[in-house]
Each structure stands twice: as C-alpha cells, then as structure tokens.
Description:
Blueprint (H helix, E strand, L loop, with lengths): L2 H13 L1 H5 L14 H4 L1 E8 L8 E10 L5 E9 L6 E10 L7 E7 L2 E10 L5 E5 L6 E5 L6 H11 L10 E2 L22
Antiparallel strand pairs: 1-2, 1-8, 1-9, 2-3, 3-4, 4-5, 5-6, 6-7, 7-8
Amino acid sequence: MNRRDSLCTMATCVASPSLLMTTVGPKPRCVPQLDLKRYMGDWYEIGRYPNPWQKEFVAVKNNYRLRKDGKIDFRSVGRKKTFDGTFKEQEATAKVVSGSKNTQWKVCFLWPLTARYWVIELGDDYEYSVVGQPDQKRLWILSREKTMDPALQKSICERLTGHGYNPARIEWTKHSEDPSVYLKPKQKKRGFWG
Length: 194
C-alpha cells in the first residue's frame, strides 16, 4: 500500500467512526437501575484491571456514604504489597449522572478531573458489584465480603466478555482476616523535642 492509499484509508476511518466501532467489540452496559441507599457502605475489592495508582495493592476496601446534597463521599484504602505495608487512602466525591437511574457516577479525586464509574453488574441482594468504564480501560469486582464464591467469580468472568472485557487481565486482590489492616495506623505522639 502506497502513501496515498494509506492517507485515503485513514481519511475514510476518520470520516466514518462507525467503521472503527464495529471492530472494537461489545460495549459495557449498565444495570437497569440502582438503589443508592442500599449500595452505600463497605465494599471489598475482589479483583481489578491493573491501574497505575493501585499497583501491587492488597487489602483494598471502599466505602461510599450518601450526603444530604445527593453527592457521595468515596473513600478507598489499601496496603502496598503486604498486609503490613504502607497504608494508602484516597478520598473523592462522586455525583450521579442525571438520567442514569443511579447506575453511572462521575468521581472527582482531584478537581476538575473526573472518572466514570459504571455499575455493569449487581447482585440481587447487593452482595456484589462489577464496576467498569465506557472505554473498558478500568474494571473492579467488588463484594460485601472479603472473599467471593468461586462459582460466582467464574460466572462473572464469563459474562464480562459480553461487556468487552478480557477476564485474563484481572488482578485478584488479597485480603486479611485482621480488621486493623483496613484501619489508618495511629500516629505515635511525639515528645516535646520530637
């Protein structure tokens, strides 16, 4: 293919984005609706797509709290590499996307940047949740418990391909039975001379 043909092909793709979309595969779809009050509380991360800010994290736990103004306080904690590793936490504010029936949020960790949070699967009793993004770059599998039934985990992975995700990319999160692992360590009081 010569340079002229290459440019023509590129121009055709730019002019017709639908041609590119047909090769991407299925897109994530949100659950029909979500009861925000039921969704609030603690969630343990069972697995995730690799991402730069959670590299080598274990014992990852999220907490969502609904505010009076309708926004959501979002807090995530974890440990670096091991259960006694460095404690890390992130806090953010989430806002429900209008018309999404609470299934899509915009999460702001650092204003004005926001990340999309789409609930693409949800247990009947809100016992587990699968969160993705429309570009399929991020994925989290969450549970109310630190562990998930292997049969459920397998069935979730099988369904993820229908949302355009590759289950082989998932990193599985280790958890501890020690509740103190999920708590921010108390800082030692320093004396007068430090």
